[in-house]
């Protein structure tokens, strides 16, 4: 019994270590993130949604929980004109950590710049205003494709954690 448990632990460790050094998988995931950024800037919500699994989950910056590709795309389309269209997005993958050869956690820093003046219920934006956020994605490999199964978006509060503070590393 002890021997089979020990073998299982070594097999899991070997699989995890192998997965952490898979440049091909990292490149494929970065490509998905890049395509998402491009789709976001073109307001191509169907293309953006295609990166999610059918049962994918997105928790947006204000805490709304959207489940399923269809619901995610529907909400993005609904918010497009008021809240998403006036914003230009830049994404920067910071870390990809493979838990297994088919599961990865990806941390992406997002910079959003207002393309024009516009108003939301909680804020007035002027052209050039910039917001920053973190995206935490869980990717899974299905049918030889990397898909997002879960995304959490967190705004970076500039009063508490200034993005461009002099002491930032």
Automatic annotation (TrEMBL):
Pfam families: DUF4440 (PF14534). Residues 29-148 form the DUF4440 domain. Residues 1-21 form the signal peptide. SUPFAM superfamilies: NTF2-like. Keywords: Signal. This is SgcJ/EcaC family oxidoreductase.
